[in-house]
Design a protein that fits this description.
5 helices; transmembrane helix; IS5 family transposase ISAcma5; alpha+beta; transmembrane
């Protein structure tokens, strides 16, 4: 029985583009029983809807399985590889060099609930929450995100963000700040 389609689902063609970037089955282990297309669609569902893992609809694989793959992809760099692949592909399609040479740095403080982990008060904005330090390329495509407590000043977060950026995008030479 086929499950109903969600707005967060990838098409099969979109999935084919990133399938090679997903980790293969472990050698010598049990064969994988879950279809990776369904796992990726389930992860995208949770990320788009903002629901908890336990509230994943029942027509997806078990939430524990989906969450396990999400964590694995986070730890082994799969998400970063997918982002880099899509970034290069999109830039090439737009007629730009696949590797960006210029970007823009910005930071934004976002409120969060008291139950959240990392948080602090941004004195300038008087906001209690987290701060997203980001760099985008000239097309507005996300290059790097670094999340800190809201109390971390931009002059402290920016050098950390720039050191991550230098490792991932060595061709990047021009980075004006939006602040």
């Amino acid at each position: 029985m086929r499950r109903r389609r969600y707005t967060s689902d990838l098409t099969r063609q979109q999935f084919k583009r990133i399938k090679a970037l997903l980790p293969a089955c472990k050698a010598g282990g049990r064969p994988r029983k879950v279809e990776m297309y369904e796992v990726v669609c389930a992860i995208l569902y949770v990320l788009q809807k903002g629901c908890t893992w336990r509230n994943l609809p029942h027509d997806f694989p078990a939430w524990q399985t989906v969450y396990g793959y999400f964590r694995q992809f986070q730890q082994d760099g799969t998400w970063e590889a997918v982002n880099r692949f899509l970034l290069r592909r999109t830039r090439k399609k737009a007629g730009s060099n696949p590797e960006p040479s210029a970007g823009i740095l910005d930071a934004q403080t976002v409120r969060c609930t008291p139950q959240a982990g990392l948080r602090g008060v941004d004195a300038g904005k008087k906001t209690n929450g987290r701060k997203r330090h980001i760099v985008v390329d000239t097309l507005g495509l996300l290059l790097v995100v670094f999340v800190t407590a809201g109390s971390v000043q931009n002059r402290v977060g920016a050098p950390i963000l720039l050191s991550i950026l230098a490792k991932r995008f060595p061709r990047l030479i021009r980075i004006p700040s939006n602040s």
